Amino acid sequence: MIQVRVAGVALDPTGQHVILLKPIDEIPGEGLILPIWIGQMEATSILVAVEGADVPRPLAHDVMRSLLDVVGAAVTGVAVTRIEEGTFYAEITLSTTLGERIIDARPSDAIALASRAGAPLWVAEEVMDDAGVPDTVTEGESDDVSDLIARERLDEFKRFLEDVDPEDFSG
Fold first, then answer.
1. Who contacts 164 (Cβ-Cβ below 8 Å, separation ≥6)?
2. Is the distance from CB of 107 to CB of 88 less than 8 angstroms?
3. For the whole model, what pTM was predicted?
């Protein structure tokens, strides 16, 4: 297993969100990076956690973290374990009163939860070998145009959360 960090959340040329995982011991702009395509809501949730942003109401992954805290469980790690026909698979490792438990999860949910829990992220070597691409995007990460676009979307989502009224959803 290779320990990684969230190097960023970007938009691909078609407007799809991509989370970029980078081995923690590699210099930005060198080595490999693992792109995993995710949904907009998951991208927002990961950005909120990575940026340490405040939201007026808890997001789903905040609720998951709270549930684990209440029952005395802790996320001890997350691993992207395999890729099959273009689909990534992940596992969340929990420390519970009943011992260690491993839960199957989508990588986006697992990473969002780990980001909130401060748990380490791992990628199986075979996954990085099969799906990793040369890192030509993380050099100067904070200035990356796609990162700026993602932050703008995060700000837009925060404004939506602040202004939303439950009656807006009534039929």
1. none
2. yes
3. 0.74
User: Any idea what the CATH number is for the domain that residue 105 is in?
Assistant: 3.10.690.10
Tell me which of 141 and 165 has the higher pLDDT. Answer: 165
β-strand pairing of 32-38 with 133-134: antiparallel
- Per-residue CA distances from 169 to 24, 39, 129, 159 (Å): 43, 21, 45, 17
Residue 108: phi, psi to the nearest 5?
Answer: -65, -45
Range of the domain at 42: 2-165
Is 16 a domain residue? yes
**For the chain, how many structural domains are there in total?**
1
Closest CA relative to residue 150, chosen from 6, 5, 15 = 15
Adjacent-strand bridge partners of 96: 99
In a domain, 147, yes or no: yes
Residue type, 107: P
Grouping H, G, I as helix, E, B as strand and the rest as coil, residue 115 is: helix
Chain centroid offset of residue 124 CA: 16
The two structure tokens encoding residue 156: 């837009």
131 vs 53: CA distance, rounded Å: 30
- Write out pLDDT tens, residues 93-139: 999 999 999 999 999 999 999 988 999 999 999 999 999 998 887 66
Q: How far apart are CA 132 and CA 130, in angstroms?
A: 6
